[in-house]
Queue: 3 jobs
Job 1
Amino acid sequence: MKVTEHIKQAEGKTLFSFEILPPKKGENLDGILKNTTPLLKYSPSFIDVTYHREEHEYIERPDGLLEKKIVKKRPGTVGTCAIIQHKFGIDAIPHILCGGFNQEETENLLIDLDFIGINNIMALRGDSLKSETYFKPEKDGHHFAADLVEQVINLNNGTYLDSSLKNPAKTNFQVGVAGYPEKHMEAASLDQDLKFLKKKVDAGAEYIVTQMFFDNQKYFDFIEKCKSLNINVPIIPGLKPFSTLRQLSLIPHRFHIDIPNELIKKIENCKTNRDVKNIGIDWCIQQCQELKDFGVPALHFYSMGKSDNIEAVVKEFFD
């Protein structure tokens, strides 16, 4: 079932969903299932599975020169989606990136997903490599997520890269995209970022999932700005409860978001990470209650490999 169908069937009731990471190369699904299974009893409507592009490592050769090696740390997105969808009967949503793919590789990936019954995808540009100052697409790859959305919609219409195909099959994907209540880190302003978001929606995206935020007013303001630009698709808030003191500096640095002063003071007064986790759970519960009262279509949680604190939040609303 597509995401917007889930929302429509809920008839105004707030849904629950979350995002997981596929296993690292060399690991099996045991760790993922261990963290995912406790959340299944709360009936998630869908589960996102992230995709991680290649990384570059430099290995010193016997002659002293450095050899560049391309490695993929988490290659199991498609397999993880297949397990979620066919073992648990929950709609799985793979993340599809511009980075690391040319258009032919993207098309082949989409064909594989269509064959295994996946009909929701999250289309993202993806981050630049650690060795790059700015994002650089593959040769014949997409530079912007809007272009990736357009390619998916073309497949839905039976338009493949090879125009000589006769009576090509149409796919049936619904596309979600990312939104940034506090703007994408590379955008010059929020207004400019919203113009890029509108391009993604105009290209065919049917729902938006936001970057995490800790101040609900940022989300409320974002909704109003989207409405003013006639962006009228469902906008699902992304959430993550704090769990460690280190995240107080890590999250703003990595995700370029602000932390409310009240939350900062609460965390700074904590003596242990257990205290931080409790503060994070309480804060997230308050966020969720306000968002539910506002009438959000779903509460979407970024698990980042952990589920205990998310379960502590979710059971307050979906038990």
Job 2
Amino acid sequence: MSTIKTVNLGGQGLVIPNIGLGCMGMTQLAGNDIYGKADEAESIRTIHRSLELGGNFLDTADLYGPLLNERLIAKAIKGNRNQYRIATKFGFEINDNEQLTWQINGKKDYVRKAVERSLKNLGTDYIDLYYLHRLDPNTPIEETVGVMSDLVKEGKVGYIGLSEVASETIRKAHKIHPLTAVQTEYSLFERNVEEAGTLKTLEELNIGFVAYSPLGRGFISGEIKDPNDIPENDFRKTIPRFQGEQFYKNIVLLNEIKALADQREITASQLALAWISTKGFVSIPGTKRVKYLEENIAAAQIILSNEELNRLESIIPLGTNTGARYDKAGMAAVDL
């Protein structure tokens, strides 16, 4: 039996579990491991186990690999496509040699090129939820969303969304075609969307919110006890949250979160996921292992009281510096 809850994401009709599966770590990114080494067979088992537990919402992007992640998902869902809800993203430009140029491209022709490539790599003729991965500073959002709207009319895409965008961008886009979701990094360690008023904008416009990296890029799991625990070619080496003195300041905060979790007899990860779902948002914790997938999905049933929410948020109040979520180049691509 499924132990997961389903929710309406936004106001356009998409129904998904309140905890999805982030698939990014199941493949390398431009030759680097993401959260340690991946194992294809175990990744596919994780996707299958997620479906057994009612977790049929998979999140990927053409960036991951590039392209390898979508192809892995195609293997996992083959013969069972209609059971899954698949979200993928485009925007980081990938050339005809399947190489990242690291430019953001939201131009009309590129959107069409990207969607056809994703459809082929996923082995499907429709994408449930299609996101613009990052805002193209050189292309009006109205142009990008205009062609995404055409893809919906053509049946290639069910619903559309944006990732890491500010309220002004959201309002402009939503006028062109109703957005179903906005995806942004959000966790106890990263609450910029609250500080910037983005969540209020989404509530006003009835657009769903999807939290990626809800475990602070694995920080909240507590697996990494020292910056030296991070493998040499793991991209977290570049993230300020995991570096130097900031890392140890964050560990002090994490220990307080763990103490609260112990009182509920759950893990810190489950507490962090329950915090997001109790607030009414969808999270997509990434994992490539069945063990962690089962732990994450079990959190879908945990509801926190207002007192517990307040206690948790008092550990890391809004405005606390926990380290930027990307290096300078990564932050430059975020529309804040």
Job 3
Amino acid sequence: MQEIISFFRNRWTKMLSVSFIIAFLTCGSATAQIKIGVKGGFQLANMEFNTDDLDKSNRMGFFVGPTVKIELPVTGLSVNVSGLYDQRDLKVDESTFHQQSLILQGDARLGAGIGDALGIFILAGPQFSFNIGDDVEQWFGKDGTLKQFSLQETMLSVNLGFGINFAKHFEGALYYNIPISKTADFTWQQLGDGLKDETWNHAKSRTNAWRISVAYYF
């Protein structure tokens, strides 16, 4: 079953990536309009492990950076590319620490206008995250056992969502970020009755996130 899920995840990611590249290449048309701006927002991250034995909870974070919107000659179709600094808190067992990333985010959008100053759109596209903070956290639990959380250096995910344009310069969006690759590995020590009686447990983590963003285009 895991192989089947991985197959469809990989295929879905390739389809989104190819669609985004094709749309981006069409931007060479003289009729395409380019808008440059800045984007920022907040996120609520939820870590999921492949075991139910770990304590976890949702954590807040933020992101900010430049963004470019390219309106294509096809009615209602546009492409958005953003380079963002992303920071979120992650809680694993008793430990909470910061994850810092640089994000390259791209999405294809299909929208429609409502009057002269308001529009709505749906979006979908890939996201590539590059870890720039500490990638390994180690600590001792309350019972004295050693624990380690190791973040991936690069991560691939997909964004799905919708948003509104208003007053020609402002944009708001709500979207859900779905990881394709794992986010991290968690390893912890478990002691037995004897001094040398110990085992090491291992779990994989994926981090989903709800994001709310606001952008201003100059």
